[in-house]
Specification:
Layout lengths: L2 H20 L8 H7 L4 H4 L1 H24 L1 H21 L3 H19 L2 H8 L5 H29 L4 H4 L1 H15 L14 H24 L4 H23 L13 H31 L4 H8 L1 H20 L1 H21 L6 H17 L2 H7 L6 H35 L11 H36 L1
Helix pairs in contact: 1-6, 1-7, 1-8, 1-10, 4-5, 4-6, 4-11, 4-19, 5-6, 5-10, 7-19, 8-13, 8-14, 8-15, 8-17, 8-18, 11-12, 11-19, 13-14, 13-18, 13-19, 13-20, 15-16, 15-17, 16-17, 16-20, 18-19, 19-20
Length: 467
């Protein structure tokens, strides 16, 4: 394949990656307006975010396995069209059931593209350029993950929330046309599709049980017997899924892929980083708009410091990763994360806004330099590239969903500690309680980054010993 075509296809897959990822976070800042327009409570409107993330997590491995059998490009292109259609329906929605149904369609398409984009890129580019190519794709994915509140705030300044979804339609169509023209066309092979249905059902039940536990636990408390029961059920489903995967001839996940410590710890560290990124998506818009009393436009501009720096650091990190290894680059990037986390732990409303911008900019720099995709895909054997890409995308979405749940739970726990009672909304009469709750949440985020540093330190030590 010509080098020019490689880069066109990289842009096509990366644009779709950006749209499908940003749609997990961009809705957060629009929830208050959407709840008013749709005449529903805020906690009901939150399902517009949750149903998208949960369904993607359920379907990713299914489409990863299916793409290995009928073709990754075919699944990716069909997924792009379904995602565009879902975006159009979301923009046209006028009530909660309609938009939830549209988000299901959107998530179906997004899971098809997320399950295949990494393996398509590793197929297109030679191994010597995987770091750079995946680094460019990572910049789009990571920007999509962290730019949602900023982009959403800017859109809502001039347009209504429907345009958050409408903007995907023309961009998605262009990406599909580029892919249709430049992707290599292979005839559909007529062979039996083998899907591990018992494994998939156990996995789907496990994911749904886990997220119901997380989101319901935020409402009734995590010590409630019903939540404890869901935790036990999730543990049984995990054990059942592993047992099924060991016994079937065509498992949903070839568990041998996790025997590589670099792959397993790469997934875990990526989940931790994406979870920390979601703390900014959830907490920072509240801090900027409700505590500092900035407009949504001003908040959006400030939050754009993260993706703007990410744009430059991700491809640079990928370029360096091709020379010294993705694990080393990611390990060093984790230390950069420590600076913004400390700023967010200490920042006060009396501080200059410059401190917050510096913290967000450094977070964007570290986030881009963290080369999770090259690290994960580079540690997966060639025969596992398809499912490895799906697991990498699953780790990212699990991290985002866990970050969403953790950020809100920790924030309100910290606020409740200050208030001496259970509080699950912004404390208008005591705004400083919110700041204390924010500091508590970011202390946990700092701890998560330290855990990720320890994981990659083990990987690097073992790699050095093997060499």
């Amino acid at each position: 394949m010509k080098q020019q075509n490689q880069w066109i296809l990289l842009m096509s897959t990366s644009i779709v990656s950006f749209m499908s990822t940003i749609d997990a976070s961009i809705v957060n800042i629009a929830i208050p307006k959407m709840s008013r327009d749709l005449n529903v409570l805020n906690n009901q409107a939150e399902w517009i975010v949750s149903v998208y993330l949960v369904l993607i997590c359920v379907l990713l491995l299914f489409f990863g396995k299916l793409s290995d059998q009928i073709g990754r490009v075919r699944i990716f292109q069909i997924g792009t069209l379904i995602f565009v259609l879902g975006s159009l329906f979301c923009g046209l929605s006028v009530n909660l059931p309609m938009i939830l149904g549209s988000r299901v369609v959107q998530a179906l398409g997004a899971s098809m593209t997320m399950a295949t984009n990494f393996s398509i890129i590793t197929d297109i580019f030679p191994p010597s350029r995987h770091g750079l190519a995946l680094g460019v794709n990572s910049s789009f994915v990571q920007i999509g993950n962290i730019a949602g509140p900023g982009v959403g705030g800017l859109i809502l300044t001039w347009f209504n929330w429907h345009f958050i979804f409408f903007v995907n339609v023309p961009i998605g169509i262009i990406a599909y046309i580029l892919g249709h023209h430049f992707f290599p066309h292979t005839p559909l092979q007529r062979h039996q599709v083998k899907i591990d249905l018992p494994g998939f059902l156990a996995y789907a039940a496990m994911v749904v049980s886990f997220f119901v536990m997380i989101f319901w636990g935020q409402v009734v408390g995590f010590t409630d017997l019903r939540i404890v029961g869901l935790l036990v059920l999730t543990a049984f489903l995990v054990a059942g899924f592993i047992l099924i995967e060991h016994r079937v001839s065509e498992p949903m996940i070839e568990l041998r892929v996790f025997h590589n410590l670099g792959f397993s710890f790469g997934i875990l560290s990526a989940m931790l980083v994406y979870a920390c990124g979601y703390f900014n998506n959830v907490i920072m818009p509240f801090y900027l708009q409700d505590r500092l009393l900035l407009s949504s436009a001003a908040a959006g501009v400030i939050l754009m410091a993260v993706p703007l720096l990410n744009i430059f650091s991700a491809p640079t990190g990928g370029y360096i990763a091709d020379r010294i290894g993705a694990e080393k680059v990611s390990f060093y990037a984790l230390f950069i994360f420590l600076v913004p986390e400390v700023i967010f732990i200490l920042v006060r409303p009396q501080w200059s806004i410059i401190w917050l911008i510096v913290g967000l900019a450094m977070f964007g720099t570290a986030n881009g330099a963290f080369q999770n995709n090259p690290m994960i895909m580079g540690n997966a054997a060639p025969e596992f590239q398809g499912i490895a890409g799906s697991i990498a995308a699953l780790g990212r979405n699990l991290g985002m969903a866990i970050g969403l749940a953790l950020a809100t739970s920790l924030l309100y726990f910290g606020i409740s500690q200050q208030g001496g009672k259970r509080i699950t909304t912004y404390p208008d009469a005591h705004p400083d309680w919110f700041v204390d709750g924010m500091h508590f949440a970011y202390q946990v985020a700092l701890g998560m980054i330290l855990v990720a540093i320890c994981l990659l330190a083990v990987v690097l030590k073992r790699k050095k010993k093997a060499e």
